[in-house]
Give the backbone structure.
Amino acid sequence: MGGGKGGEQTVGYKYHSGVHFTLCHGPADKIIDMQYADRECWIGEESGSSTGYGQMVVNKPSLLGGDKREGGVQGTIDVGMGYPEQPINSYLSTKLGGFVPGFRGVVSLIAKQFYWGNNPYLKAVNWLVQRIHTRSDGSEQWYDEKAEVLNFSLTGETFRESFTGESLSEYSYYDFPSAIGQGSMSDFGIVDDDFGPAIFVGTGPDLTSVHISAYKTIVLNTSNRPLQHISFKFKALSFGPNDSPGLVFRDSSFNTVFSFNTRRDESVDVLRRPTFSFTDISGSAGYPVGLGSVDIDTWYYVTVDYVNEAELFLGKVVNYSTQEVFGEVTIPVGVLNQITSIHFENDHDSSSHAGTGLFDDIVASAAATAGDMNPAHIIREIMTDTVWGAGFPEPEIGTSYSGIADTLFDEGLGLSFLFSDEIPYSEMIDEVMRHIDAVRYEDPETGLQEIKLIRGDYDVGTLPLLDKTNSTLEQITNPSDYELVNQIIVKYWNRETNSYSTLTLQDTAAINMVGHIVSQTMEYSGVTNDNVALQIGLRDLARFSRPFHKGRIVTNRKFFNLKPGDLFRLTDLDSGVSEMICRVTNRKESGALSGEITIEFGEDVFGHEYSAYALPAKTKWVDPVGDPLSFSHDTAFELPYLLIVKQVGETAIAQLNDTSSFFGFAGARPESGAHINYDLYVYPDGAVQNPDSEFSISADFTPIAVVDTDVDDPSEVIIPVLPLDAMDSVREDQIILVGDGADTVREVVSLSATVSDGDTSITVKRGVIDTIPRPITAGTVLYFVGTFSANSDTEFLPGETVEGYGAPKNGNGYYLGPYNYHDLLMRGRFNRPYPAANFKIDGVYPAAMVQPTSSTVQLTWRHRDRITQSDQVIAYYDDTDYGPENGTTYRVESDAYDANGDLITANWLSTDVGLVGAYSLNVAAAPIGSRSINVRVWTVRGGEDSLQSVNAVILLDGDLLVTADSEPFITADGQYLITGS
């Protein structure tokens, strides 16, 4: 149909190019994320190769709106981590020629003939790169097991809902919130958090092996990240024989890989034992591990946590009140890595025995995709790296680093820096020190480089005392209340949102004291998450909101080993100080023969109690757009003559072949998700067409209505429907497809009166274009096509099967399947004559069955003409002749059936009656034994039959009993038959 659209037009250009990106010093651990124009286009974990190149496959051709807008990105990227053995990249060598280096020592990304969209310039490209475990020479990181700090959020909302056996199916619960830990979990509905813990009550045989998950499934770990932590509380209230309430963890195939159950102990009626069961990584065996007996009506806390590189998890059961470890078991790491869902069960096999168990505070966390580096490791590497660091020899690094690494790891205080400018190594270290609140010094006794954290981990009674007997206080100051900061704003880079975030903390007592807010913003470029920002913010607020003393004191050699970061008690009654806890900030040797030492100090922040703060609650905001969804309803159809004329005009119609056939499609807007439009893909059956904007047809959604009650009378023009919606653009004469049947049996109607949103009926013209009226059942979907449908411009041939599907789009991309594929047999609908209309028998519109009063019945009909009707919609029941087209004739056919509805003779009558509008049918001529005949009138022109025929069933025996049990039925080709006796 291109002739009517003014020919092809160039609307833009696609740009492909090879680009070599050099990101940073290498080797790195992995590439985690890629963004183009601030939109995520690839996520994964590509760690490259120590002797070659890894590969990233990017497939987001519609990232920036597809071909109709700015295109997207698509192609393959070679990943070179910069190992010493890294070879020359073959793509760079081919394109650049001559001498090409291997680019060792830097992280390289080589985009090979990559599609960058429909703009002649490259937009911003960003990558998330992790380098923690690998040093610049390719060797393993020092103390590697504590090098990466993962940030789990184990204090999120918990699963809480109540179930009872009597009304189990009435409940729908909400599962884990979408932000617990780092796992991605679906949310099926919200209920009040005030519900009690999850209760499983056995009340009879109806609860035998009940799987509550049959109503809702708790889905975990959908991004295929391994679980690192599971915890929950459990209480056994009562049990009968073989009762077993528990949690069952299953893989993506619904196979049980791990479970925690409480089972009856056969030897002791009032005690039960908890059991961990799991299947090994090959799926070949189960390992039940009983942990002894538990007390009834006692809360136990169950945890499963990753242990170490021995690839083990440790499962524990702890008495919640006494904190006594009740039992524990090791579990292979491969087991939990398979888990994708949790299910709740209460199994019992006796109607006379039932148990009750409680589960509460259920939390599951998956491994973070991107960890942070232990600050102790950062400082140590800055000092020792010989490529970009200070190059200190390893033996000059003191033993304090390993202990500091342990503390920071336990605190979860990991940092990530991007050092993009050339600065002195000492400034890099100072910045890290500022983040973790630490001091670095050279030990005066050993000469080794050491660090010390400023923490409250000390016993006041063991600290040295400096007073007038051994020291002289030279200076002490105390800021006024009005100089204090009472609000701290922490600014940091939030990896989750990929943007700067702020966290505001206030000391309300300090604000009330001065009567207004005194704020200070602290920027921490190495912080990547809320938990670390909170730690640092609380520390700063405690330091700046209290009137801590500062001063200088001179002491003797008795305290020669006081180093920066060390603590002491200060007493100077003349200054009003009595055993103040102080921390050394600096020390100087006087050089005098007396050996005096000058110490600068500050009152220790941990010597005062201060208010505790909680991390602000996660936002409850949910993206209103959401992921793109499939159509609520969709259908495929061959375009009729009238719709083709409306699209291309009558002039262009003349250029089409008589055999032209076109694929049409109607897709209703998905039920939610703010969808914009959809892409249609049409191709010959047997071919494969993956979503690619280059081959798509962009189309608008089709308004629909759903029939509310059955419309048995084919002449009824008022169709009851469910309340209408989105009818703003629907106009009178709109063409409507009725249902999803094949074109040969599907009626087309047209709107004969305007409609508005909320209407519960529509008024139509029945059997328009090339179709006849038929009964319509409740639930049938009505598609308002015409201007609200899509079609392929490709001309197909009659007899050819064509396949097509649609992919709805919203602001978050296009629907990724599974698609609803439509196979459509082309019938040359464009060129077929229209069927006869206003068909009557003996002057009456035939019902489903006609009982004649004589042996001859009179068939009459009206002419229809697709050419004459190309600019108007004529109802089937319009008692006027239109046309007919030149060369039109009619053929009358009839099949004979016996009393059981079985076919006796097909086409016992088949006669071309010419260009007439009436025919006398001798029913007495039907084959012997006939009890009903099916009469059809076909329109014929140029050897082509109409798409549909008018028809009726005529009963030949007046004694034939027709009851509700002998309803007519419709054959596969849409014709009426009668069954009965």
